[in-house]
Amino acid sequence: MIGKLMPVLLLCLLIAAGAAAETLTKKTDRGYVSESYTLTSSIKTEGTLIINAAGSLSGLLKIKAEGNECRVKYRKLLKADSKDEANEYAGSITVECSPQQNNALLTLRAPARAPWSGTSNSARLEVTISVPPMTKLEINTAYFDIAASGPFAGCVVSESLSKVTVDNVTGDVEIKVSSRPVSLKKITGRLVVSNKYGKIRLQNIDATDKMATIRNEQDTIIINSFIGSADISTSYSDIIAENMTFLGDRNRIKNISAPIILGLDSLTSGRLKVYNQYGMIKLNINGPVDAAFNCKISEEGAIDTKGMEMEPTLVYDDRLEFDVGNGTAEVRLSAKHNGNIIIKGPNSNTDTGGN
Q1: What is the dihedral of CA 193, 194, 199, 202, to 10 degrees?
Q2: Is 268 left (phi over 0), alpha (psi -120 to 50) or beta?
Q3: N or C: more exposed end of the chain, with fewer CB within 10 A?
Q4: 42 is a domain residue
Q5: On the CB side of 224, how many CA atoms lie within 13 Å of its CA?
C-alpha cells in the first residue's frame, strides 16, 4: 500500500514545491505580485493566435504586432489575506504557450472552483503578447480587458464581459461584448460587433464590398468615418455617426426612444432606410446629393428640410416625398410617436429658410 501511495505523495510534494518556489512581492496590505515570466512559441506568417482562459481568471491582455514569433510576458497579481494564501493562489494558475500546426495556442489555466472564488480576494494575470504582423486573433476570455494593436489579418472576440479595444485589422472582425465598452479603429473588411449596456465606438471603418453589422442594446453607438454597407441598431441611447458613405442597397439604421444623428459625406447611390420609434432622425449631408427621399412621421411629428434644391412629389401632413437631382439614391426615413425628421443639405449654412 505504501508503495502505491509513494507516487501520489511525490506528485503532491512537487506541486507544493512549485507553488512555494513562486517569488512574490508585497505591494499593498493585501496585494502581491509575482515575478515576470516569458514564454515563446513559433507561429507561421498569417497564422492564428488562439487565447483561451479559465472563467475563474481575470486580467489584462495587451497584444501587439511585431517580431517573428509569439512571445508572451506575464505576471500574477494577487489579492490575499496572507503571503501563504497568495502563494496558494499563484500555484493554482498556469500559463502555457505552444505551437499548433501554423498557429499558436495560449492557455491561461485556473481551477473552475478557484480558492479565491466567492471571496473578496482575487487573482489576475497581466499579459503582454507580441505576434508577427498580419496574425489572426481568436480570443476566448470572459473577464480579460483586451487591447490589441495591429496590423492583424482578423480578430474574433467571443462572449467577453470586459473592455475591448482593437486597432488596425485588415480582415474579418467579430466582437461580442456585454456591459463594457468596445472601441474599434482602422478596420478594413467585414465587421460584426454587438454589445449590451456598453458603448460602441468605431473610427475609420472600411467595409467596401463587405457588410458591417453593429448591434447594441440600451447604450450609445458612435461612429466617425465609415464607408460600406451597414446594419446599425440600438435602443434607448443615441446613434451618432459622422463622415459616413453608404454603399449598396442594404443600409439600415434603427433606434428606439433616442436620437439618430447621421452626417453623410455624400448621398448619390444605393439605399438607406432609417427608422426611429419615439425619437428624432437628423440627417446632415455635407457633400453631393442625388436622391429620392420618402419621409414619414406621426401626427405629432414634423419634417424640416433645407440646404438642397428639392422637387416635392408627394405632400401630406404625415408624409413628404421629394427628389434632389435625378433621385438616384433611395432614402426612406420613418420617425414614429412625436419623432421629428430634420434634413440639412450641403447648402444649409447659406440657406435662409427656403427649400
Answers
A1: 10
A2: alpha
A3: N
A4: yes
A5: 5
CB–CB of 77/124 below 8 Å?
yes
Alpha helices in the chain (DSSP H): 2-20, 83-91
Number of domain units in the chain: 1
- Do residues 135 and 44 make contact, with C-beta atoms less than 8 angstroms apart? no
* Average pLDDT score over residue span 193-208: 97
The average confidence (pLDDT) of the chain is: 92
Indicate whether 5 pLDDT > 60: no
User: How many angstroms separate the CA atoms of 70 and 73, rounded?
Assistant: 10
| Cα separation, 350 vs 166, whole angstroms | 40
Say if residue 349's pLDDT is above 50.
yes
**Is residue 205 a part of any domain in this protein?**
no
Q: Averaged over 296-325, what is the pLDDT? A: 94
63 found inside a domain: yes
Residue 21 is predicted with a pLDDT of 54
Asked whether the beta carbons of 228 and 192 are under 8 A apart, the reply is no
pLDDT at 350: 56
Distance CA 164, CA 182 (A): 5
Q: What domain range is 72 assigned to?
A: 23-160
Assess if residue 52 is contained within a domain.
yes
Instruction: Give the span between the Cα atoms of 232 and 145, in whole angstroms.
Output: 25
Whose grid coordinates read 480587458? 145
